[in-house]
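Severity: low
Component: inverse-folding endpoint
Summary: output formatting inconsistent between runs
Steps to reproduce: submit the following structure tokens with default settings.
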């Protein structure tokens, strides 16, 4: 990237555990096709260097002069657009940046700096599967994971290595990136990515206007899939039924049904498992979304 002018950024955006690691790994492998850092191999240890995450502490230390743990929520919100501008002008990695943040205002400041943005790839995953994935990844029970996905205005707290990040609830995150038909946005379902990885990764590469051909895309996809152990057997979109009880499924669907319906997740199988009709689920979800729009008086950390 140039030190003097901004290089527009593409965002790999998602609610956590929705496929960003595989997509970023694919793009890292693909970048070798057009000569990016040819002396270094494509591997996960170098992934954050090549395709950075916008919450890394060193960005805030460079831009603000303080560690994220020394900053208030308001100060982090104010710094986010400056961090994005810094990345666009100075960061030597690829102009493709990971984020889990909602796209909107955070303390009255845009959470994503549109002035240095060119577009996005938003990765979405069935929340019925996300709940058990979060439970396993965080060493928690499914109920705790369900609460996390439902927490309006949730923000992941700062640590020594990462700044606070405003995730919102699963529905808030999804709606913020997919609800406004913004030019330059592409939505990829995790389930489609698993069912047809080469086809979906081709869509990503073409959307990001990578200077590569079909053969190079295929080779990079094969390398990334092998690195992550993704095979045809990896795709089991109904696996959630063995991990989410009917009561837990009902609680989740009553909150997220409206966004689930938009992306084909509010299936008859899911509704029958939860003991809900489609009308009941959508009405309950609408009530919850209305409540989520009320002013927040307490921090959304969990």
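Observed output (run 2 of 3):
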């Amino acid at each position: 990237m140039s030190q003097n002018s901004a290089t527009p950024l593409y965002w790999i955006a998602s609610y956590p555990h929705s496929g960003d690691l595989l997509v970023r790994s694919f793009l890292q492998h693909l970048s070798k096709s057009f000569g990016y850092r040819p002396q270094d191999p494509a591997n996960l240890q170098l992934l954050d260097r090549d395709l950075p995450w916008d919450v890394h502490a060193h960005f805030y230390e460079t831009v603000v002069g303080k560690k994220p743990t020394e900053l208030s929520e308001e100060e982090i919100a104010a710094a986010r657009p400056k961090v994005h501008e810094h990345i666009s002008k100075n960061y030597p990695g690829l102009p493709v940046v990971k984020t889990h943040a909602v796209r909107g205002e955070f303390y009255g400041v845009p959470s994503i700096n549109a002035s240095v943005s060119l577009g996005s790839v938003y990765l979405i995953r069935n929340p019925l599967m996300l709940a058990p994935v979060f439970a396993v990844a965080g060493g928690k029970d499914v109920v705790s994971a369900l609460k996390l996905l439902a927490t309006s205005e949730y923000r992941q707290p700062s640590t020594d290595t990462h700044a606070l990040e405003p995730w919102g609830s699963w529905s808030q995150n999804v709606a913020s990136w997919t609800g406004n038909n913004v030019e330059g946005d592409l939505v990829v379902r995790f389930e489609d990515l698993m069912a047809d990885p080469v086809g979906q990764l081709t869509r990503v590469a073409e959307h990001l206007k990578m200077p590569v051909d079909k053969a190079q895309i295929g080779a990079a996809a094969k390398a990334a899939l092998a690195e992550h152990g993704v095979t045809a057997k990896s795709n089991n979109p109904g696996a959630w039924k063995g991990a989410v009880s009917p009561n837990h499924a009902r609680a989740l669907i009553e909150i997220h049904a409206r966004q689930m319906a938009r992306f084909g997740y509010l299936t008859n199988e899911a509704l029958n498992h939860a003991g809900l009709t489609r009308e009941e689920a959508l009405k309950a979800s609408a009530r919850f979304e209305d409540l989520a729009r009320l002013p927040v008086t307490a921090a959304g950390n969990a």
